[in-house]
Amino acid sequence: MSAVESLTLRRLTADDNQAIASVIRRVSAEYGLTADKGYTVADPNLDELYQVYSQPGHAYWVIELNGAVAGGGGIAPLSCSEPDICELQKMYFLPSVRGKGMAKKLALMALEHARELGFTRCYLETTAFLREAIGLYERLGFTYISEPLGCTGHVDCEVRMLRALK
Predict the structure, then answer these.
(1) pLDDT tens column, 18-60
(2) Are 40 and 46 spatial neighbours (Cβ–Cβ below 8 Å)?
(3) Where are the domains of the chain?
(4) How far is Cα of residue 112 from the mean position of the Cα atoms in its chain?
(5) Residue range 7-164, CATH number
(6) Strand 159-164's sheet: what is its strand order?
(7) Collapsing DSSP states into helix, strand and coil, what is residue 70?
(8) Which of 89, 92, 120, 143 qualifies as a cystine partner to 27, CB 3.0-4.6 A?
């Protein structure tokens, strides 16, 4: 008999900084997403995500599996862009929580929160290496765009997508 898994989706706290940074680093290494290519692991604020996402217009959620942080994702205003566009950011999940519907649940929560904050469009950048993530974004109604928006610094994120927030 297997143990019952407990999955929780909640807002990021300051106590989660180290755990979510570790998740992001582990998943990045799994997919070969290195700092020298401008991926999230190069973010100088990676170890202080609570402080980043506590700013106005920002929000981040974590997924816990049996009390341990196993993934997360958030939204923030898209820098160097029109004020009505937010960005879906830092969606990273350990293998232990993939395929359980939590990424979809988190993304839908983030999009609704963005809508409540007054954003009318949501942008994201990713890489073709993250096929599962791209499939999720397609199912959520994101469409491909050719040119990057804002100034994210993710030079090797060749997949760019946009979604209206209705």
Answers:
(1) 999 999 999 998 988 766 655 676 677 899 999 999 999 999 9
(2) yes
(3) 7-164
(4) 14
(5) 3.40.630.30
(6) 7-11, 59-65, 68-77, 85-93, 121-126, 159-164, 143-144
(7) strand
(8) 92
